[in-house]
Amino acid sequence: MGSWKCGSCLSSLLIPLALWSITVNILLYFPNGQASYASSNKLTNYVWYFEGICFSGIMMLIVAAILLVLENDNNYKCCQSENCSKKYMTLLSMIFSALGIAFSGYCLVISALGLLQGPYCRTLDGWEYAFEGTAGRFLTDSSVWIQCLEPAHVVEWNIILFSILIALSGLQVIVCLIRVVIQLSKILCGTYSVIIQPGII
């Protein structure tokens, strides 16, 4: 019973993480609080992958909702045996938890790439990725951030928001991974039998 409650708590935790991911991703479209850069397509290309809005956001909300439904003790039985029903619910829970790892993992990778690439900004040479060839070294050298003249404070903006997205999606990966381990332990450690007896279905 405790493992079911634990699984439910973990699934519920995915909801605020997904909502924050959506919010943070939306903020990336408004550097310095201005919408003009998004309308003129002067944003880093990784923003348009919708990693926080779609994958770590909406898709994770769907996954969390399905997992909460699967953990409901009042679920209908998929077959005559309660043992059989729990087995299938566990397998479905593992599948959707694995999907959650894939969705949040996508956001994690894209956000990390966006962070390392740096912002698309106006320099003395025009609009470009000023730090694209630095392999992320600009992250620890704030003296070079002044190369970006516009949008104002765009380097800090990108670093903070992409870092938050990395943290949020990383937590989602951990939560879903823990859920997979919990469900797997129910099968392997014999919380209930996973063998369908003849005549049950």
UniProtKB/TrEMBL annotation:
TM helices/strands, residue ranges: 12-31, 46-70, 91-116, 159-182
Membrane disposition: Multi-pass membrane protein
Location (main, coarse): membrane
Location(s) in or outside the cell: Membrane
Entry keyword set: Membrane, Transmembrane, Transmembrane helix
Gene Ontology cellular component list: membrane
Similarity comment text for this entry: Belongs to the L6 tetraspanin family.
PANTHER family, A to Z: TRANSMEMBRANE 4 L6 FAMILY MEMBER 1-RELATED (PTHR14198), TRANSMEMBRANE 4 L6 FAMILY MEMBER 18 (PTHR14198:SF14)
Protein name according to UniProt: Transmembrane 4 L six family member 18
Gene name linked to the record: TM4SF18
